[in-house]
Amino acid sequence: MDDPLTYRADSTPDATALIAADRDDRWSVADLDVAVERTAGRLAALGVRPGDRLGMCLPTRPAAVRIVHAALRLGAVLVPLGPRLTAPELADRLDRADVTTLVCGASTAATAAEATADEPSLPVVSVDDADSDRVTALGSRTPDAVVPHDWRLETTLVAPFTSGTTGAPKAVALTLRNLLASAVAAAFRIGFARDETWHVALPIHHVGGLTPLIRMPLYGMTVVLRESFDADAIADDIEAYDVTATSLVPTTLSRLLDATSGSLGPSLRAVLLGGAPASEALLNRCRDRDVPAFPTYGMTETASQIATATPAEAAARPGTVGRPLLWTDLSVRDDAGDELPPGDIGEFVVSGPTVSPGYLDAERDVFGPHGLRTGDVGYRDEDGYVWVIGRTDDLIVTGGENVAPDEVTDALLSHPDVADAAVVGLPDDEWGERVAALVVPRAGAALSAGDIESHCRERLAGYKCPRTIRLADAVPRTDSGTVDRDAVRKRLVD
Prior knowledge:
27 strands; 29% helix
């Protein structure tokens, strides 16, 4: 595949490709193509070649879009890295992904320099001015001429790290085939408009924020960037730019609904809702306010979506994440690997062209003979709809009974004074594990542990009710919105 942005610039050069909402800056497809060519040339002048691993430690901003497409043009494997990583965390990821050049910005340069202090041969370049000897300003280089790389379908294009909510994150190899199949399957499920405008406020080192940037020239759509999540600003963006689609996690969607009244605007036709389970209460709020929420289940290892429910499906079957996307096979299997019938609970195993061939830096034993063993637990009903219950490593076994944390979380979130909650298992001398909950009260609510306990006992079997309850200001989460269970557990223990 030749460079898609170059192709798009030949076909629709005057169309708007990118809008930076923080400053209302706009780039046509032709403007962005020229900027990417210049960036790619400067990276080439620094020695970046096809097959190199180009680390990118930048927040959500236009410069990051240019780096994404410059890597594609050069044939370098893009390794997107979180801009809030500490220096030791960044150094660990650079080592495990074998990064050959690191791109940073003004906000991440100090961390990048510290993380690479013991690797003086690893070039560090900044998209902004450089104020240290360790970091080179990319703009100081005279661009080399660049010939767009001819990508093969099985070549690794990007390598984002998993969230690592229970263990060390791993760099996932996503090939061109993975990303193209995901783009096509998503368009089949969600639909596609000629005037598509996709709002991105998610971190772009996760697939939810990264994939719209890659799909922009494939779909011919406009991307609106917001550098950080601000509910009021995003609500204004949706109206000002006639946004048609966006990707959010339940926490950010809830905040957006809290900050607005009524619908989110007549142009909005799809809110892809993933990263964590969407509660029935949140989906009811969306239905009542005519917000088109598409609950989805996906993974970094599958280049984003695995299954997605339309708003009508979500309303008819509360709790489902829909059916698997085009070309995606999802089976439910027991510990022996045997497929289970509809209604039986087991581990999801996924296969198809969106599934990664493996990790850059770790064992591949999760990729078995039937596909990717996801570690997620749930079932499919008679009509093929998927229901996610939790993860195999999150399951709480108390007194010999299995408890799915998400089921308890849903019960907690149904309390009108609970804004957020997370449930984990803690060691217990008598029961092996006990159910424990970290609960965030709504602003101004007078909520007690006793209120929560009484509420749960009306909705859950006794063994599922939290035996440890702590109130908190917030639930620890990763940048992608997933509950950081290790951090929750530590907070409860402390």
